[in-house]
Design a protein that fits this description.
Immunoglobulin-like, five-stranded antiparallel beta sheet, 3 helices, 227 residues, alpha+beta
């Protein structure tokens, strides 16, 4: 197992935080050593045809650019609308060449298609100060990906999970988040404290009023004639 680690870490890989169909996922592309001993200057990630767009996450060491392509015919989306263009590539350009002995990570946010069991490939061209490496090999049926010299990063979509939609989960999380529960608890406690405080103030006022009434009667009695 240990013998296989160096080879695996030398590839451009895509690590998803989730793989459920029809969900939003963050794909982290690990950048390995440069082209032999040359620093990396650019990473061009090609999106599979199943994806319409991707949102690149800001990385302070790189600039990001979307490359758009015109579709041969309008593509209808699940919400009933249609698109005529899609994002075909995300191009990250290094502000300074990434030294070959260092690694970095680039993150894309994508909406995974509703195609459980399908493997999505992201051919990636690594451009260096001298030379380039084209991570675009896709295994044939029955072929082991580890046997490829420059395999394309890939993600396999799994079965959908109820409530896995990114926006739906976010909304639900907002309604039942621990922070919201904590605020509700604090508000309830404050309301109870205010209620008890009002009751104590009321009782205190009643006691003072009673004492004043008693003193008034005693004074009037002592001032009456014949007393």
């Amino acid at each position: 197992m240990l013998a296989g680690l160096p080879a695996a870490s030398a590839h451009v890989s895509a690590t998803p935080d989730k793989t459920a169909a029809n969900s939003y996922a963050l794909l982290t592309f690990g950048i390995p050593h440069g082209c032999d001993t040359s620093g990396t200057t650019k990473m061009t990630i090609t999106l599979p045809a199943e994806l319409n767009d991707a949102q690149p996450t800001v990385n302070p060491n790189w600039t990001a650019q979307k490359v758009m392509e015109q579709l041969p015919e309008p593509k209808k989306l699940d919400n009933g609308t249609s698109i005529t263009r899609r994002t075909s590539q995300i191009v990250y350009t290094a502000k300074a060449p990434l030294a070959p002995e260092l690694r970095d990570a680039l993150v894309l946010s994508v909406k995974l298609p509703d195609t459980a069991g399908k493997t999505l490939y992201f051919p990636t061209l690594q451009t260096c100060e001298q030379g380039q490496t084209d991570w675009s090999q896709i295994p044939q049926e029955g072929q082991d990906e580890e046997s490829l010299k420059t395999p394309a990063p890939s993600v396999t979509v799994t079965a959908a999970v109820a409530g896995a939609d990114g926006h739906t989960a976010h909304a639900a999380g907002t309604e039942s988040s621990p922070a919201a529960a904590q605020v509700a608890s604090v508000d309830d406690g404050g309301a109870q404290a205010r209620s008890w405080g009002a009751l104590a103030a009321g009782l205190g006022g009643l006691a003072l009023g009673g004492a004043a009434f008693v003193r008034g009667r005693a004074k009037n009695s002592s001032a009456a004639p014949g007393k």
